[in-house]
Amino acid sequence: MLSVTRKHANRPTQILVRTLFSPPTRGRQSLVILGSGWGGYEVLRGVDKKNWNVTIISPNTYFNFTPLLASAAVGTLEFRCTVEPVRRYTPKVSYYQAWCDNIGNANLQIYHHFKHKTLTCVAATPPVSFGSSPPATPQPFSIKYDKLVIAVGAYRQTFGIPGVKEHAHFLKDVKDARKIRTRILECLEQANQPDMTDAERRKLLNFCVVGGGPTGVEFAAELHDLLHTDIAQHHPELAKMARINLYDVADSILGTFDRSLVRYTENTLRRDGINLHLRHHVEKVENGKLFIKEVGEVPFGLLVWSTGLAPNPLISAITELKKRDTTSRVLTDAYLNALNVDGTPNPDVWAIGDAASIESDPLPATAQVANQKAKYVTKTLNKLANFSHSHEDDEQSKNAHVDEPFQFRNRGSLAYIGGWRAIYDRSKAAGDGENTFMNKESGRVAWLLWRSAYFTQTLSWRNKILVPTYWFLNWIFGRDLTRF
User: Fold this and answer.
1) 30 - beta bridge partners?
2) In DSSP terms, which residues pair with 357 in a beta bridge?
3) What is the pLDDT of residue 120?
4) Is 50 exceeded by the pLDDT of residue 320?
5) Which residues pair with 339 in a beta bridge?
6) Are the beta carbons of 212 and 259 closer than 8 angstroms?
7) Of 135, 223, 395, 478, whose CB count within 10 A is highest?
8) The pLDDT of residue 225 is above 50
9) How far apart are CA 269 and CA 38, in angstroms?
């Protein structure tokens, strides 16, 4: 069976696990989904629950609509607008707030001959301790499955730079957005104290962003909007002292965008007073201090870190599947089946999202790619279930899949750059031979595309109502500056 080995007292100890059996559902196979991000949540939404006994395992009880996190971090939107609850689909679907620690110590291929496979998980919430008893240790449990979708995503890349995890803020989850919003308001209220000197205020109101990708640029733009609207109205002197600095090791920001759009964005940000520091290298981070190789010590009140992706610990622990050397992402074939270490596709395991990459055609780790892969896998699973019901004794049913391999359709890239302006780039799609109505756009037209795209992509009717409502309310009344 698949098991988890943990270390105690510097020696490995085998932990017994309890097995959770799926409810007895005649004629339905067990599908387990790992992760509730752009990949896992889309599979959860679209898979036929009547034909699959579905279990989803994720440390989060929600799906993050990541493009709106920067807006939530500065109060343009409220946090509930950026999440969709996983439990919307229970009790038809079994959900456990947990993470998968490891997928076995034996080759996954041996399980193809068995009816059920097993993976081992650990609860993400700490167990309750009663009275004076010592804190309980989360006990692993195992889940049986017939088919598995790995969509665990990735972590933020820190490149091993000392102090980043301890003193920087990330922007990958709604909890990160809450911490950033709290910290911004803390800096403003502390700087407003009468015993602060102007030099101390400038240090506290120096906001630093490391990483010139879409997330870093959008957060810097949203923060600029906050400082030059609501903060300028309520704290005019503090707004004049505030500075936004964006650092990146590359020669330009937004490396995946068209060069003309990059130049437009850089000129726009500089005109707005956002300082771009390109070809700068961070050496270490201390409490309130950023050490840059080219300029030395830089004090800050808030540091937001957005420099790419690092492999999920689960993916790092898997030894039975083939992975790409440069990124450690699980390799798949064109049908998104994970590849075993010998290069053969595993018909019972799919890998999608930031945790996976197609061997023959690597695609960027973006929400758009993860979402399209999830829809493809959903279509495969639904066809497989229908085929199995109509061919119960047919060996071909074991390997049924969608006839055509996965093909990514580039819908274009969007980025907000502040002041009701954005950029839109679909030039690479046009370069692949697609007919596109609009390849590149910038300014107010792109901003309308940006808002309309994210409004239409929000998944529930609840958020389709909440998002434009908060946009309208904050336009009329301004952002809420209370801290609680």
Assistant:
1) 53
2) 331
3) 86
4) yes
5) 345
6) no
7) 223
8) yes
9) 30
Residue (of 289, 381, 377) closest to 334 by Cα position: 377
- The sign of the dihedral angle between the CA atoms of 257, 263, 264, 270 is positive
- For residues 120-144, one letter each, b for 16 or more C-beta atoms within 10 angstroms of the residue's C-beta and e for the rest, the string is bbbeeeeeeeeeeeeeeeeebebbb
The tokens describing 327, both together, are: 């990124």
What is the DSSP track for 204-217? HTEEEEE--SHHHH
DSSP label at residue 230 = I
Which residues share a beta bridge with 243? 206
Number of H helices, E strands in the chain: 14, 27
Lowest mean pLDDT among 173-182, 232-241, 307-316: 307-316
Q: Alpha carbon 386 to chain centroid distance?
A: 32
Two tokens, residue 252 = 């330009």
Task: Give residue 310's identity as a one-letter amino acid code.
Answer: A
- Does the structure show a pLDDT above 60 at 38? yes
Q: Is the pLDDT of residue 434 over 60?
A: no
In whole angstroms, what is the distance from residue 234 CA to residue 49 CA?
52
| Alpha helices for 360-443 (secondary structure H) | 367-390, 427-431
Bridge partner list, 54: 31
- For residues 43-49, average pLDDT: 96
Q: Using an 8 Å Cβ cutoff, are 468 and 455 in contact?
A: yes
Instruction: List the one residue out of 421, 416, 415, 412 whose CA is nearest residue 444.
Output: 421
- Residue-level pLDDT at 112: 42
Please report the sign of the dihedral spanned by the C-alpha atoms of residue 449, residue 454, residue 455, residue 459.
positive
Give per-residue pLDDT as tens, 155-193. Answer: 999 999 999 999 999 999 999 999 999 999 999 999 999
Tokens of 275: 């300082």
* pLDDT surpasses 50 at 249: yes
Which helix (H) or strand (E) segment is 122 a member of? strand 117-123
Which residue is associated with the tokens 């800050």?
Answer: 300
Q: Long-range contacts made by residues 189-197, C-beta under 8 angstroms, separation at least 24?
A: 189/483, 191/238, 191/241, 191/301, 192/235, 192/238
DSSP, residue by residue, 272-322? TTEEEEES--EEEEETTEEEETTTEEEE-SEEEE---EEE-HHHHH--SB-
Q: Which residues contact 240 (CB under 8 A, 6 or more apart)?
A: none
Q: Is the pTM of this model over 0.85?
A: yes
Burial class of residue 241 (count of CB atoms within 10 Å of its CB; 0-12, 13-18, 19+): middle
Burial class, 300, CB count within 10 angstroms (exposed 0-12 / middle 13-18 / buried 19+): buried
In the block, tokens 């003193």 appear at 167
Residue ranges and CATH numbers for the domains of the chain are: 5-156+310-399 (3.50.50.100), 164-307+412-477 (3.50.50.100)
Six-digit token string for 21: 């059996």
Pairing type for strands 421-425 and 413-418 reads: antiparallel
Q: Which helix (H) or strand (E) holds 40?
A: helix 40-46
